[in-house]
Amino acid sequence: MKKWLEICIHTTNEAQEAITNIIEEAGVNGVVIEDPLDLTKERDSFFGEIYELDLGNFPKEGIYIKFYLPREANAEKQIEQIKGKIDDLASLGIDLGQNQLTSKEIHEDDWANEWKKYYKPVKISEKITIAPTWEKVENMPEDGLLIELDPGMAFGTGTHPTTMQSVRGLEQYVKPNDTMIDVGCGSGVLSIAGCLIGAQKSYAFDIDPVAINSTKMNAEINGLANLVEARENNLLKDIDTQADVIVANILAEIILLCVDDAYRLLKTDGMFITAGIIQKKKQEVIDKMTAAGFSIVEVNELKDWVSIIAKK
User: Fold this and answer.
1) Is residue 123 part of a domain?
2) pTM
3) Given this model, what pLDDT does residue 150 score?
4) Which residues are annotated as a binding site?
5) Residue 25 belongs to domain spanning
6) 89 and 167 share a domain?
7) Annotated binding residues for S-adenosyl-L-methionine
């Protein structure tokens, strides 16, 4: 029987978005947030989230962020890398609270029952709904688009604000038969979304082999294995594919490194859709894009995150 590690980070609401972003960038496609505010929070039914809340799961102060990894030889190293990046958030002025990380071993049969209680189908944009493969999605609108994911031990719901910002940008700017590039593809959700919207091809790049495998698996589940081409690459270095749309849902510091390459690879009038930018970095990214030759089309904000859409 396969064994897994449940990693729990005790932190603050303020740090939630930044920490979940770090976890997703590490190739872990889902987290569980245990926030005592969920006990009293009114919910926007647009997202269709369904929770089963137990008071005993919640800390007295702050929040728990949990994620899951296979109990393998490199698990400790991956946890150490994630913890190091979380610690670095303090230098950005983010209050990490207790910032305590604990882990425990669980068995696969335990997880199979526990994980499925947390997530149901989630509508993340005007057209796109994300659902685990075990859930039947009812009352989908005629023009609705469904992304199915088989999480195994990790399931990205797509409710992270930066994912929603990116998908909404793709809905607005991807045209039929477009070629797109997905920089830092993670679980492949944006590549899948882009192809469902109408792109004829998405080239998905990530430096993490776990992310590449996840993207390939999810593309196959959604019948898009022939449209999504995923491979390891360091951002856009040594890439020569010309694209109509480039999407980058990564941290601002990384976006800054690929702005010039994005301009080089985009066709005239091509769109550069970026997300994962904190407020403090917004102007720096805008300045870098403008200097590269881009025209800024939109600057959107959701919670603490900024999405910038630019045109070549």
Assistant:
1) no
2) 0.66
3) 65
4) 163, 184, 206, 249
5) 3-115
6) no
7) 163, 184, 206, 249
